[in-house]
Specification:
Two copies of one chain form a homodimer. By secondary structure, chain A is of the alpha+beta class. Chain A folds into two domains: 112 residues, D-amino Acid Aminotransferase, Chain A, domain 1, CATH 3.30.470; 153 residues, D-amino Acid Aminotransferase, subunit A, domain 2 (D-amino Acid Aminotransferase, Chain A, domain 2), CATH 3.20.10.10.
């Protein structure tokens, strides 16, 4: 695949950065990730908004305008011709002189085939475990996934698909996804603070608000346990029902009615976006 | 300078790694850092111990034995001929297939001139601020310095030299140094848990135990405020008196008697190590 590195398109096999970069030295950088459906980069402006916000939080110079980025992304769509793909835009801390102070960032844009969660996966749902943890600077999409990768072994040992972080009695987010609950009175709720503001989360919250009562606010562990439905949202997973939490079944152990309805509406929103933003080669 | 990358010596200007490495993608890796005094890598086995321990914590294959590493380090001492230098050994998460699962690590060993804290700096001491934060997996020397770099602006704004992390009312460590206090009854104390076990910390604790009462245990913020002396230890800073905490003067605002005595003994220990482990070219 072709990728974009700082100021030029290169084959990914030839895309290298020097070892003094602050991502390698200090794990310092931000990124964003979006996908294409039938070549169309979905909700791209929402992702760009977040990318620039993350860069701003960590005082990294994004090096490109939104229009520059858009042009590069569409050139990659054309060059690589992957219908279902993921784009990652990474902005690193750059070649630091003293190994600590950020410098001019390296900008890396990768483009690869992506596996998007299937209907079968939706029906199967997922089993999760809980872990007390609050991400550093959670509203910025930093490259820091130390805890997430460290917890992989715990997931495997407990035969779980994902881990939901909580802190001080409130649930927060998954390492790479947001969480929603549906309360007994059919309100759709997602944590408001101390989480990354996912783009799928945003779209689902909007959809939910049109159909049900929907809220972004703190959610306690007790509320999670009392929820009639629980699901996650992410760019590659869309919406996935959570059917087990620490080995306790959620609801009747099947995808809930509201989760299913939101999934359907989200798929329609995707299709509508693709229709309105067609790609022509 | 010449550096070592995986299996060969290369000029640092030609030392690159591919963008799919998990340090760039997910800030995932460990490292260690030691220095030379008159060409001699100081306390090198203590640093190797910690390097292998960090790799083990994060389940990264260190790729080399201790003897391999020692050989590479001494070859770099010979090739680069820098009397006062810093060695950094980084072990990254490797070229991950899916951008999340660790692979065979990239091993990077850099060697550069290092600035070691001077006597003048000791006399001047430092001013610090406090910040509530607990590092992820604190006993492993991971490359995650997101919070530390993020806090740089706060340091500059408050005209402070460093930031001391605390959590739940107990002090922990600086981003790159350990903390010690001397109590009114002349006991030398450093936090025992939830901190990186610094090599200078270890040596100073040993020295202190021979001269005074010395303990590793939890230290509350109140104890910090009541301390007659406060200092930090690190590889490049050795021992530095902390003379101001959040703009409040510690003791009489000058380096304390016990801090000074430990500094002298630590310098002697360094000299002794160099005498016993001479480098001959």
């Amino acid at each position: 695949m072709i990728v974009f590195l700082n100021d030029r398109f290169v084959d990914e096999k030839e895309a290298f950065i020097g070892i003094s970069d602050l991502s390698i030295q200090r794990g310092f950088g931000i990124f964003d990730f979006f996908r294409t459906s039938n070549y169309v980069p979905l909700f791209i402006d929402d992702y760009f908004d977040r990318f620039f916000r993350s860069a701003d939080y960590l005082h990294l110079d994004p090096r490109k305008t939104r229009e520059d980025l858009r042009k590069i992304v569409f050139e990659l769509v054309d060059k690589n011709r992957i219908p279902t793909s993921g784009f990652k835009i990474i902005l690193t801390g750059g070649y630091s002189v003293d190994g600590f102070e950020p410098a001019t960032p390296n900008l890396i844009i990768t483009h690869q085939p992506a596996e998007i969660s299937s209907e079968a996966k939706f029906e199967k749902g997922i089993a999760i475990i809980l872990h007390e943890y609050l991400r550093d600077i959670p509203t910025a999409k930093s490259i820091n996934y130390l805890m997430a990768i460290y917890l992989r072994d715990k997931l495997i040992a407990q035969k779980a698909d994902d881990v939901l972080y909580f802190k001080d009695g409130c649930i927060l987010e998954f390492p790479r996804s947001n969480v929603f609950i549906v309360t007994k009175d059919k309100t759709v709720v997602t944590p408001a603070e101390n989480v990354l503001h996912g783009i799928t989360r945003k779209k689902v919250l909007e959809i939910a608000g049109n159909k049900y009562k929907a809220e972004a606010r703190a959610i306690t562990l007790s509320e999670l346990k009392a929820a009639s439905e629980v699901f996650l949202t992410s760019t590659t997973k869309r919406i996935l029902p959570v059917l087990k939490i620490d080995n306790v079944t959620v609801g009747n152990g099947e995808p809930g009615e509201i989760t299913r309805s939101l999934y359907g509406s989200f798929r329609e929103l995707e299709d509508e976006y693709c229709r309105k933003n067609p790609i022509t080669f």
